[in-house]
């Protein structure tokens, strides 16, 4: 903005009109006092000041304006029609004016001078703004540098207190700082420690330095005093500020004792593994020999039993028909031989349970329907009812799971109440966990199968005994059996990685509960069987 100061309005108006025609914003004052008031509140780029004015002349106004900080960059042009002597011109310049024009003034010259001074004022304003911005930036950088220096001092304090080799590296890969432990492995703070010839660590570190990524390696450092190599874990991580990598922080952590312990443990594991291989081979050989022995013994035992049974039957038919006193004794001998044969067969079945077999996806409803055909005579004789609900296909060993249901159904028929038709129900549901009391879940990974009867039941305090081989809760006189059936069932369920348990009360029937995985994930290949 341009300020024209003149005590005569007829002098102001032409100048104002000329400047406004050249797109200048113009303000006016008709006395020195008015001009000073306006300068205090408004910034002007150029002041055109008349010299000859009443009360305060132009020189006095200029001297007063020079004392205002707001106008220190304002240019003053003096105009005078009377005071044209050299001494007045000199006084104008010494009062703070940048030019001294005499009237009449050439309008074009005046406009050119005002334009030049206006441009100079704008450049000064831009320069001041740039200086202010630069000053602020310098201040910010200074504060950032102070903060950075403070943090570096804190970092170095932390690194110096660590009980391990610690260092920092500049972004160009040069060492900046090392703590006291550094000198156990390096002769100076500017050289890296000597590493084992097989640990090509520094070449790998150069690649990480270029890529700007964390670097971690096991490395062996040579101790300067002893010359021995010790295992260390080297870790160098990049530090970034506002996305720019500024430095790296690294540590060497002594892991020599752990490494020695690990190597010792590996050797011990290798020794134990070899011992286990030998033991397993011995166990396999012993197991094979035991199976052969069991087969031979059972075969050698069954052959004499068959002869005893045959001879007893022959004696009974030929020689004891007419001797009612001797026949019962011979019948007892025949029954004992039959029990002995059953016991041998059950023992043979129990010893064969450890043999490996493949799992198959099996339709258990079809398996149970086929199994019930073996019980047709007993079911018909006892007028039993067997109700089988839908069972999902499971991943099982069909022959083994058949043994389980055969024993459970056989027991349910055997331990029926006198003069009460046996009722056997078999139900299944998917559950969420491998637990006898797991919660039902339509897509659960386990299946719970419950075999329930209305027989004589048992006291649950004997629950642990019923699954132990040769353990019986009832005497042999009332209920036949060898006490092996449920032990075989339990071993078969364990082979399926499942659970078996029971719930019962005396004279209130029994519930046998099986929990089996829907899919086997522990043993070998699985095929599909319908």
TrEMBL record:
Task: Write out the entry's keywords from A to Z.
Answer: Kinase, Phosphoprotein, Transferase
Q: Which GO terms describe its molecular function?
A: phosphorelay sensor kinase activity
| Entries under PROSITE patterns matching the protein | HIS_KIN, PAC, RESPONSE_REGULATORY
Residues of the PAC domain: 215-267
Q: Which residues carry this modification: 4-aspartylphosphate?
A: 50
Family annotation (Gene3D superfamilies): 1.10.287.130, 3.40.50.2300, Histidine kinase-like ATPase, C-terminal domain, PAS domain
Domain Histidine kinase spans what residues? 296-520
Database matches in InterPro entries: CheY-like_superfamily, HATPase_C_sf, HATPase_dom, His_kinase_dom, HisK_dim/P_dom, HisK_dim/P_sf, PAS-assoc_C, PAS-like_dom_sf
PANTHER family for the chain: PAC DOMAIN-CONTAINING PROTEIN (PTHR43304:SF1), PHYTOCHROME-LIKE PROTEIN CPH1 (PTHR43304)
Its protein name is: histidine kinase
């Amino acid at each position: 903005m341009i300020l024209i100061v003149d005590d005569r309005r007829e002098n102001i108006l032409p100048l104002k009109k000329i400047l406004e025609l050249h797109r200048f914003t113009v303000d006016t004052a008709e006395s020195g006092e008015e001009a000073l008031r306006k300068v205090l509140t408004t910034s002007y780029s150029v002041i055109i000041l008349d010299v000859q004015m009443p009360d305060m002349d132009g020189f006095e106004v200029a001297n007063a304006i020079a004392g205002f900080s707001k106008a220190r960059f304002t240019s003053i042009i003096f105009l005078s029609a009377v005071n044209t002597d050299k001494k007045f011109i000199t006084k104008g310049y010494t009062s703070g004016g940048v030019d001294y024009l005499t009237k009449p003034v050439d309008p074009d010259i005046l406009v050119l001078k005002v334009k030049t001074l206006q441009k100079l004022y704008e450049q000064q304003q831009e320069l001041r703004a740039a200086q202010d911005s630069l000053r602020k930036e310098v201040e910010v950088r200074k504060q950032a540098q102070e903060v950075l220096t403070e943090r570096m001092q804190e970092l170095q304090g932390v690194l110096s207190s660590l009980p391990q080799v610690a260092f920092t590296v500049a972004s160009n890969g040069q060492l900046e700082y090392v703590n006291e432990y550094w000198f156990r492995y390096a002769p100076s703070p500017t050289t890296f420690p000597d590493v084992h010839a097989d640990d090509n660590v520094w070449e790998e570190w150069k690649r990480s330095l270029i890529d700007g990524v964390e670097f971690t390696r096991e490395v062996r450092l040579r101790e300067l005093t002893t010359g021995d190599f010790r295992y260390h874990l080297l870790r160098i991580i990049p530090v970034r500020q506002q996305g720019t990598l500024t430095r790296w922080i690294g540590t060497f952590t002594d892991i020599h004792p752990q490494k020695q312990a690990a190597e010792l443990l590996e050797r011990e594991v290798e020794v134990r593994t070899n011992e286990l291989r030998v033991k397993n081979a011995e166990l396999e050989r012993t197991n094979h020999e035991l199976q052969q022995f069991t087969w031979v013994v059972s075969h050698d035992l069954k052959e004499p039993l068959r002869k005893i049974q045959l001879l007893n039957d022959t004696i009974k038919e030929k020689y004891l028909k007419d001797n009612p006193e001797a026949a019962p004794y011979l019948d007892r001998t025949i029954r004992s031989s039959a029990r002995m044969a059953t016991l041998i067969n059950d023992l043979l079945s129990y010893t064969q349970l450890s043999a490996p077999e493949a799992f198959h996806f099996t339709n258990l409803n079809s398996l149970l329907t086929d199994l019930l055909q073996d019980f047709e005579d007993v079911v018909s004789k006892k007028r039993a009812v067997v109700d089988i609900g839908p069972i999902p296909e499971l991943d099982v060993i069909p022959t083994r799971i058949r043994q389980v249901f055969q024993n459970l159904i056989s027991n349910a028929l055997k331990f029926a109440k006198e003069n009460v038709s046996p009722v056997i129900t078999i139900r299944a549901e998917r559950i969420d966990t491998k637990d006898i009391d797991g919660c039902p879940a339509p897509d659960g990974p386990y299946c719970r199968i419950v075999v329930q009867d209305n027989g004589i039941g048992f006291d649950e305090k004997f629950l642990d005994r019923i699954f132990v081989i040769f353990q019986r809760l009832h005497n042999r006189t009332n209920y036949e059996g060898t006490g092996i059936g449920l032990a075989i069932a339990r071993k078969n369920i364990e082979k399926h990685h499942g659970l078996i348990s029971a719930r019962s009360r005396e004279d209130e029937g029994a519930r046998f509960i099986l929990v089996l995985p829907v899919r086997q994930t522990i043993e070998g290949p699985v095929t599909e069987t319908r």
